[in-house]
Protein: FAD dependent oxidoreductase TIGR03364
Amino acid sequence: MRLVIIGGGILGTAHALAAIGRGHEVVQLEREPEARGATVRNFGLVWVSGRSAAELELTLRSRELWEEIGGKVPAVGFRPAGSLTLVRTPEELAVAEAAAGSPSAAARGFELLDADRVRTVNPALRGKFLAGLHCWTDAVVESRQALPALRAYLTGTGRYTFHAHTEARSIIDSGSGAKVLDDQGRTFEADMVLDCPGAAHTGLTRELVGVIPVRRVRLQMMQTAPLGEPLTTAVADGDSFRYYPGFAGPEVDALNAEQSQSATAAEHKMQLLCVQRLHGGLTIGDTHEYTEPFAFDVDEAPYEHLTQVAEELLGRKLPQVVRRWAGVYSQSVDPAAIVTRAQASDRVWVITGPGGRGMTLGPALGEQTADLLNL
Structure:
């Protein structure tokens, strides 16, 4: 079959990877020079630890696929680094203990470590904390490198073409095939069209399927200069327990009831996540904002909070912050849906809304769509 995939982000590219892997031909269209949205404005985390029970099997499959991809395409920067969620209060410790004793703990790779064992696993953590929830299944890819590397790999198959600076304007499904018309007057013929628009819910996407059950979420993040030493795992703080459904339970209810969370963290719905890039710098975030219209500028208070927490856990000053940015991602609001798939016609589908799980789940979602559509 010949597929046209609209959207050059991780979801579109993962669908291209799945289709190419099954012997099909793919033409991928991206309106920017390359993906510039949530795909590159994230941590690059393949995050198993906090996924809900309903998502766990799919997440573990995606983790497996990322490792396979990393073997074929080393430039994606796959690293089975694991993670440590560091706890600083008795309430956070209770959540970590419950997670380590849960029925899914073995599948997730959970182990609760005391402070000394945390420092053995990750010697860069010399700060103040009670314990750490270790998750060995969590992994990292290089978000700014992954997509160019994957496109180069796909191009090498001889069955993939990428068109940058190309905006799809309309799609015609004739019944025997589909045609995608772009903003340069070109027509791309296809047996199947997959529109993976990211957070662009209007325009062509709305014309195809109307209003779909998704919302946009805004975040703020930052990047430091090289740390000067290895940070051997990804690092999270106890506030992350509040936002990941895999930790839900009475212990999280008690955590949300106590008042130890700072006013800034509560206002901006914050957690600390910290990942070391291959160049040695740290990607640090993040915030959550759900009500539009979003501000066009960034707020400094969250960055001050993230710096304070990171320095408390590391026991040292952070290197200079060299970049700050905001990003917007698409999140399904259907609690039963990991991603929103809407059928516009027999040959045209819209796929969006993985939320902050796009990098984690991308390969498995591409595989899942291929199965659903009998590709």
Summary: DSSP finds eleven helices and 19 strands in the chain.
